[in-house]
Amino acid sequence: MNSDKMKKQSKFNHGIIDCDVHQGVKSYEDLKPYMPRVWWDRLNAYNATLPFLLYRPISLERSDASPGNELPAGSDPGFAKVDFLDRYSIDRAILTGNLLSVSAHNNPDYAASLASAFNDYTLDTWIPSDDRWLASIVVATQDPLLAAQEIDRLGSHPKVVQVLLTSGSREPYGQRRYYPIYEAAVRNNLVIAIHGGGEGDGINPPTTAVGYPTTNFERHNILAIHHMSQLNSLVCEGVFETFPTLKVVFVEGGLAWLPHLMWRMDKNFRGMRSEVPWLQRKPSEYIIEHCRFTTQPIEEPDNQELIQMLRMMRAEKTVLFSTDYPHWDNDSPLFVLNKLPEEMRRRVAYENAVELYQFNVNPIGAGGNSR
């Protein structure tokens, strides 16, 4: 389907910025040139990237997103260009990778080396293949000082737009041991993205607050609790007072939980603000100013209820579009954006990301550049 026909079907003609596209490697052998030889044997091991503890009856990636020859979906930038960027007339796509358990490894040096190798592979293989791809710096959070070094190493690259953490962590991200990561992000004018992954794996706490679930269905239903916990920690611990220019995107964690969490935080702040004397504003005000949330996996009530929910969370400022390509439950632009009123659609599809990431205001297709 050509881009003109796709735009006609989608009923809008402004740009689209996708804030969550998962690229990978064809084989972990591809990372060896970027890693010290001491880690090569471990890279070949079955648990090199921490297999999930739960049986998953549905593969994480869509089979029709595979480039063929038994290669993983999302492993070929040329195929993804045609199958995704061109098909949906995407102006920019932020790559978030597939190292979603990197912060669960027991060995912080191996985890940091794995993340660094994946970053270099992305910059060498994906970024040059199309001007629309943009990169995240994936970091392992076990050692925040090593993570900060990685941010400083790559933070000035013109195609790097954010630092990616996984929502699974040993401790909440508001705690001060993580400050070196935020300092480095601010120093390099980069956004922090917190993406689902690593919950209950390796050294991280159980998947739920009451232990491990029995099925992946049970786990999948409550993944948003990890984003909620990290957001609550960042606000209550005063991260946005310490780093007043820091912006944080919560990726692939849903949306419907945000209004109730903001209301609850504001209500409790009135009665317990003596515990957090560093907070100068209501928690919801920090969230609206500093935090953004991606659409996928968007909740799907009746359309008017969806619009009401989005308005309660100030979607015209706080929500970014994402597909989660090439995962099995990804959302196409035609599915999500056509549900929204025109002005909200434009903000969510394009303008909010332009403002957050400080992109050129013109879509690439109209002659703008990629950053």
Automatic annotation (TrEMBL):
It comes from the Bacteria. Residues 71-359 form the Amidohydrolase-related domain. It holds the Pfam family Amidohydro_2. Keywords: Hydrolase, Lyase. GO terms for cellular component: cytoplasm. SUPFAM superfamilies: Metallo-dependent hydrolases (SSF51556). The keyword Zinc-finger does not apply. GO terms for molecular function: carboxy-lyase activity; hydrolase activity. One of its GO terms (biological process) is secondary metabolic process. This is Amidohydrolase. It comes from Peribacillus cavernae. The lineage of its organism: Bacteria, Bacillati, Bacillota, Bacilli, Bacillales.
